[in-house]
């Protein structure tokens, strides 16, 4: 129990009118809880700093990936343009090239089989 004792009634001048038994128990518990809270706040602060650093690194990596995808998209667009140009050419010319290539492959395979 916390009992109030007036300074003029014989209590020592250093304890501000509280008896040592009740006040010191609450003060020690308060100090212990304060220290525990300080430790937890410090841990949360360091964790939030680490999270911030990780977020900055991830944003940098995402930015680099975005640039890489943009350049790959440009390259793919240029390739598609070339394919469109190739497909707009005369179909007979393309068909002739395919036939000549097929005949060439046929003769190479025939020649390989004939040599065995």
UniProtKB/TrEMBL annotation:
CDD domains: SNARE_Bet1 (cd15853). The chain crosses the membrane at residues 94-113. It is a single-pass type IV membrane protein; Single-pass membrane protein. PROSITE patterns: T_SNARE (PS50192). Keywords: Coiled coil, Endoplasmic reticulum, ER-Golgi transport, Golgi apparatus, Membrane, Phosphoprotein, Protein transport, Transmembrane, Transmembrane helix, Transport. GO terms for cellular component: endoplasmic reticulum membrane; Golgi apparatus. It comes from the Eukaryota. Residues 24-86 form the T-SNARE coiled-coil homology domain. It is found in: Endomembrane system; Endoplasmic reticulum membrane; Golgi apparatus, cis-Golgi network membrane. GO terms for biological process: protein transport; vesicle-mediated transport. The keyword Transmembrane helix applies. Its main location: membrane. Required for vesicular transport from the ER to the Golgi complex. Functions as a SNARE involved in the docking process of ER-derived vesicles with the cis-Golgi membrane. Belongs to the BET1 family. Interacts with SNARE complex members GOSR2, SEC22B and STX5. Interacts with LMAN1/ERGIC53. Interacts with STX17. This is BET1 homolog. It comes from Athene cunicularia (Burrowing owl). The lineage of its organism: Eukaryota, Metazoa, Chordata, Craniata, Vertebrata.
